Inverse folding.
């Protein structure tokens, strides 16, 4: 008989939390012990999301409910934080002390440098020792570190967000293998995200009549929080100081994300060489789909899946590569990736619950 692991979700009724709840409810090795919500405490999850009637009829607890936060290792194995930034770091140290694994889908555990986190997110931290244990949960690049650590310690995983996931999958093979051949200060990441990426909240600028039939950028000139997250990751894997321009856009669709990334070469290369690099790097990655020449990623292909669709192009006149990547922002960009991480933590096959 398959082992059953017990999990809970703080922030279960946002778009990411609800997507994660749906995945976990159908996972053969998982029992959901609790669902918690700031807005819908006391209501059944299936009354908030009617498509889950008969599948997830759990009543949502308050997100600060001491009864769920005081659960012990015998009652729960892992807690997901699908909460706004600034909440996870208050509760994770106590859970880790009880040997309960934590996967944080907010930004709280994505930065080793807490001064950088505080600069961009504004929250002062008292959990330096706990934060030092966290692993950045982009599975395709930290799989072995996660698997190794899970054998000997209680896990804290900082689950990357949608923009960063798509951008890293698009650019990392070059930065990992060819850092000496690129201009490290001319990288451009142009991202276009569905409205669900802004969260499930009431805001005038997110109303249908405001965003429909329109596309607009926001937080340009390195004002977006994901810029330093990308620079940190790319600097680590390249061994060089990477500076980039990140330009996010909001587009009028419910789900999906597309990044178009530009990287300038200082030495000669070819599109064939770049394609071979990506084919080699991602050969064993079941969720990465490299597209044949002249076929470009479409966000609708990724909807409801944990797939990332990537295309590689190179302009020899300008020595510039253009890499495009499409994902579902709520799946590979959030909940699907969190499930990948959970499967690794529990020693399960990585694709369980994701095919």
């Amino acid at each position: 008989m398959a082992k059953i692991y017990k999990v809970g979700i703080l922030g279960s009724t946002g778009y990411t939390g609800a997507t994660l709840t749906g995945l976990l409810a159908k996972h053969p090795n998982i029992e959901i012990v609790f669902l918690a919500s700031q807005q819908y405490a006391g209501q059944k999850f299936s009354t908030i999301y009617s498509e889950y009637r008969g599948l997830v009829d759990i009543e949502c607890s308050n997100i600060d409910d001491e009864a769920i936060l005081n659960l012990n290792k015998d009652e729960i194995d892992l807690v997901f934080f699908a909460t706004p930034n600034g909440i996870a770091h208050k509760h994770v140290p106590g859970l880790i002390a009880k040997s309960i694994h934590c996967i944080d889908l907010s930004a709280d555990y994505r930065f080793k440098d807490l001064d950088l986190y505080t600069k961009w997110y504004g929250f002062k931290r008292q959990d330096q020792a706990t934060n030092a244990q966290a692993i950045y949960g982009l599975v395709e690049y930290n799989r072995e570190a996660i698997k190794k650590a899970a054998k000997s310690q209680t896990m804290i995983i900082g689950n990357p967000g949608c923009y960063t996931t798509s951008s890293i999958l698009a650019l990392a093979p070059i930065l990992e293998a060819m850092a000496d051949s690129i201009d490290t200060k001319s990288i451009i990441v142009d991202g276009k995200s569905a409205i669900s990426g802004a969260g499930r909240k009431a805001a005038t600028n997110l109303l249908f009549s405001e965003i429909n039939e329109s596309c607009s950028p926001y937080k340009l000139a390195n004002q977006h929080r994901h810029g330093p997250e990308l620079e940190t990751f790319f600097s680590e894997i390249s061994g060089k100081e990477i500076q980039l321009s990140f330009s996010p856009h909001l587009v009028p669709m419910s789900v999906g994300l597309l990044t178009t990334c530009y990287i300038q070469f200082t030495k000669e290369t070819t599109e064939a060489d770049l394609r071979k690099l990506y084919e080699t790097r991602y050969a064993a990655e079941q969720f990465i789909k490299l597209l044949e020449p002249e076929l470009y990623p479409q966000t609708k292909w990724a909807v409801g899946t944990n797939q990332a669709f990537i295309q590689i192009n190179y302009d020899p006149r300008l020595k510039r590569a253009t890499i495009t990547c499409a994902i579902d922002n709520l799946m590979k960009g959030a909940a699907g990736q969190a499930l990948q991480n959970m499967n690794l933590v529990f020693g399960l096959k990585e694709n369980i619950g994701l095919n």
The domain at 162-329 is CATH 3.30.360.10 (Dihydrodipicolinate Reductase; domain 2). The chain has a mean pLDDT of 94. The chain has two domains: 5-133, 162-329. The first helix runs from residue 15 to 25.
